[in-house]
Each structure stands twice: as structure tokens, then as C-alpha cells.
Design brief:
about 290 residues; alpha/beta; Rossmann fold; 6-phosphogluconate dehydrogenase C-terminal fold; 11 helices; 9 strands; about 50% helix
Length: about 290
């Protein structure tokens, strides 16, 4: 039987937080789940859809007595939530998160944690461009990776409990240092989002000169799908993981320059070899071989 938490608080009942809550309810891994958030309509949706049992706008009320607290807000809002919760955490509570950046978050949260709070950061590498509780999906984490990033305030038992939770939700689990996590995610997640945003921005500028966006087909729409993600969330990700993202952007810029040179010099054979190599990598990734 998977680990069970009698009382759970999910602060930030969006796509990821809501999906965690809904999956836990479906699997009977919690007796009660309290949602915390700012938007009344979103919280009402979450309760109506059976994602949470009740809700509050006050994080102190939400975390009080909770055995597990899941931070699902944009990462820059998380430290303030932890500050506000001081004195309300149950001794022995496990505090975790689902944020996409880790180093700065851990550096900000560790000094303000009170004794008795076990902090086990996590990151489910799953998601969609949709946001809000109404898009919660209990199957969202099936077969997807979740990365656990231990801290000096992560007892072995707490790490094991969070690992068992994610395994129960259908995820594959990897334990990784914060620095490596941020470098990896900057490359495979953050960079693709910025590329999609940048492409939309570039074509918008071109469209003002010569209308063209109305002619876009499926390939273009598939490529820019992730540009529909939460602006607030991606603002925070870019600022929190700035250095690894800048390094990834520099590397991407070098690759674009290389492609530009091949096109400019009409290197037909080199272009074909390059595209064939990229197609093989794409097929390998789709098969889950990475």
C-alpha cells in the first residue's frame, strides 16, 4: 500500500497542484485535501470538481495540522507562503513543491524553515500549456519523470515518503542535486519554451510588415503550443533559473548560427546530414530512450 497522508494542503490549485490533489483523492492517499489560493472562482471549480474538500485564501489556515503541504504556486511566491506559515506547520510535516527551478528556491526557503518541518523539493516533469484547476488530470503523471531534490532538511524517511507518493501517482522518480536539476531543465524544458515565445515574437513582427500568420498550418501551431503556458509561471522560471537558461540560450544561438552558415553557403549535403541526425534524435526521444 502506498504512503497515505491524513491531511494535505495544496497551495496553488492549478494544473499541477490540482492534478496531484485529484490523483491522491482517486487513489485514497489522503483523507482530506485543503486548497489554498487567491482566485475564488478557481478554488470553487476545484471543490465542485472534487479535487479538494475545502478551500481557504489564508495559507496559515490551510497548512495548520497538515501532514503534507504541496506548494504549487509560481516559484517566486513560494518563500513568502512559507514565511506566512511559520508557527502553523505541524511538527513532522513534509513540505514539498512542484516547481520547475530548485537552487534559488531552496536557498530562500531553508533559512526560514522552523524546526520540525521536513523540506523535500520535487518537480514533476509533466504539464500542458493549460492552466487552472478545471484542467486537472489524475493521469497527468503516468510514465513521466518526477525529480526529487533532497536538502539538508530532508530526512531519509521523508524522501522515501515523497518518492512513494510519486510512484503511486504513476511517475518515474529520479533523485538529483539542485544544481544539476536546474541545468538539465534549462536545456530540455525552459529553452524550448523560450524558443517558442521567441518564434511567436519574431513572426508577429514580420506579420505587421506582411500579413502571414493566418496561413500558419499544423506544424507551426504544434511548435508554438507551449507559448500558451502561464505567463506568470514562466516569468518566474526565467528569473529564478537565469544563469542556466542564459547558458542554454547561448548554446542554441551557436547552433542557429551554424545552421545559418550552412544555408548561406548552400551546403546541401551538410544540411541533409544535419536534418537526418536531428530526426534520429527526435525518434529516439519519442521512444523514451532520451
Amino acid at each position: 500500500m502506498a504512503v497515505k497522508f491524513p491531511k494535505v494542503c495544496v497551495a496553488g490549485v492549478g494544473l499541477i497542484g490540482g492534478s496531484v490533489a485529484l490523483a491522491m483523492k482517486r487513489l485514497h492517499l489522503a483523507d482530506e485535501i485543503i486548497g489554498v489560493g487567491r482566485g475564488l472562482e478557481n478554488l470553487q471549480d476545484a471543490q465542485r470538481l472534487g479535487i479538494i474538500d475545502r478551500y481557504t485564501h489564508q495559507v496559515q489556515e490551510g497548512v495548520e495540522g497538515a501532514d503534507l503541504v504541496v506548494l504549487g504556486t509560481p516559484v517566486r511566491a513560494m518563500p513568502e507562503l512559507v514565511k506566512k506559515s511559520a508557527g502553523y506547520f505541524k511538527k513532522g510535516v513534509i513540505l514539498t513543491d512542484v516547481g520547475s527551478t530548485k537552487q534559488k528556491l531552496i536557498e530562500q526557503i531553508l533559512p526560514i524553515l522552523e524546526p520540525g518541518v521536513n523540506f523535500v523539493p520535487g518537480h514533476p516533469v509533466a504539464g500542458r500549456e493549460l492552466s487552472g484547476a478545471r484542467y486537472s488530470d489524475p493521469e497527468l503523471f503516468q510514465g513521466r519523470w518526477t525529480i526529487i531534490v533532497p536538502t539538508r532538511k530532508s530526512p531519509d524517511q521523508a524522501i522515501l515518503q515523497i518518492k512513494e507518493l510519486w510512484l503511486a501517482l504513476g511517475a518515474r522518480v529520479e533523485i538529483m542535486p539542485a544544481e544539476i536539476h536546474d541545468q538539465v531543465l534549462a536545456a530540455v524544458s525552459h529553452l524550448p519554451h523560450l524558443v517558442a515565445y521567441g518564434l511567436v515574437g519574431a513572426l508577429l513582427a514580420l506579420d505587421r510588415q506582411t500579413p502571414m500568420l493566418r496561413f500558419s498550418a499544423g506544424g507551426f501551431r504544434d511548435f508554438i503550443r507551449i507559448a500558451g503556458s502561464s505567463p506568470e509561471m514562466w516569468r518566474d522560471i526565467c528569473l529564478e533559473n537565469r544563469e542556466p537558461i542564459l547558458a542554454a540560450l547561448d548554446r542554441y544561438g551557436e547552433e542557429l548560427a551554424r545552421l545559418k552558415q550552412m544555408v548561406k553557403q548552400e551546403q546541401a549535403d551538410e544540411l541533409e546530414k544535419y536534418f537526418a541526425q536531428c530526426r534520429r534524435i527526435k525518434e529516439r526521444v519519442e521512444k523514451g530512450h532520451g
